[in-house]
Amino acid sequence: MLYSALNTRGAAAMKRLCAWCNKDLTRETDKSHDETAITHGICRICIAKLFTEMKIDVKKYLDSLPAPVLMVDHDGIIKTGNKAALSMLKKDLSRVENFKGGDVFECVYASLPEGCGKTVHCSGCTIRKSVMATFETGRPLYRSPAYLKQGTSDNITELAFLISTEKAGDIVLLRIDDVVKQPK
């Protein structure tokens, strides 16, 4: 997804290759991919080399991507976001880094006393479930539909997202492929 974040077209049924070493990233058990359509990601070995051996700054790299991308840890905490994500969220980095996803996206349920990830509504949150499933399985998701009620209980806006996730070491990259305000 790091590389494919440059391409925001759908990739659900595409063969995936590492953009650096050309290793096939398509799961052996996934027989639904189209051999002729190819998208690119990055394998764990290449990502380690990219950010450690080559000493590439993660934030600078993320900022070079045109699609909104957030780095999320295993607790649902946003570690950082690129410029496109900050612009989409209309926030500066200090209001994104080290906050729960629901707080960053201003989910109406995150403002409840239990907080993000702890309400009855959170168990059905597609964004949260997608990120956590990618953590658990290592399997990326592409352009999955997700919905969010944003705002306060007095003023709710419903948003529809298309999101993609990919595990990269001990974080998951969450790409926002599309956001649409739902009519009331």
Give a verbal description of the structure.
This protein is α+β, with helices and mostly antiparallel strands and 184 residues long. The chain has one domain: Beta-Lactamase (2-Layer Sandwich). The protein is 21% helix and 33% strand. It has a 6-stranded antiparallel β-sheet. Strands 1-2 form a two-stranded parallel sheet. Strand 7 and strand 8 form a beta hairpin. The longest helix is centred in the C-terminal third of the chain and has 12 residues. The chain is globular. 33% of the residues are buried. The N terminus is likely disordered.
Output the keywords:
184 residues; 21% helix; 33% strand; two-stranded parallel ribbon; alpha+beta; Beta-Lactamase; globular
Uncertain runs with pLDDT below 50, 5 residues or more?
A: 1-12, 28-34
* Share of β-strand residues: 25-35%
CATH architectural group: 2-Layer Sandwich
Give helix % range: 10-25%
How many structural units, i.e. domains? 1
Name the CATH superfamily assignment. Answer: PAS domain
- Biggest sheet features: 6 strands, antiparallel
| CATH fold-level label | Beta-Lactamase
From the N-terminal CA to the C-terminal CA, the straight-line distance is 33 Å
Cross-sheet strand order for the largest sheet = 5-4-3-8-7-6
Q: Rg from C-alpha positions?
A: 16 Å
CATH class: Alpha Beta
Structural class: alpha+beta
If you average the pLDDT, what whole number results? Answer: 80
Q: What spatial form do the alpha-carbon principal axes imply?
A: globular
Number of helices: 5
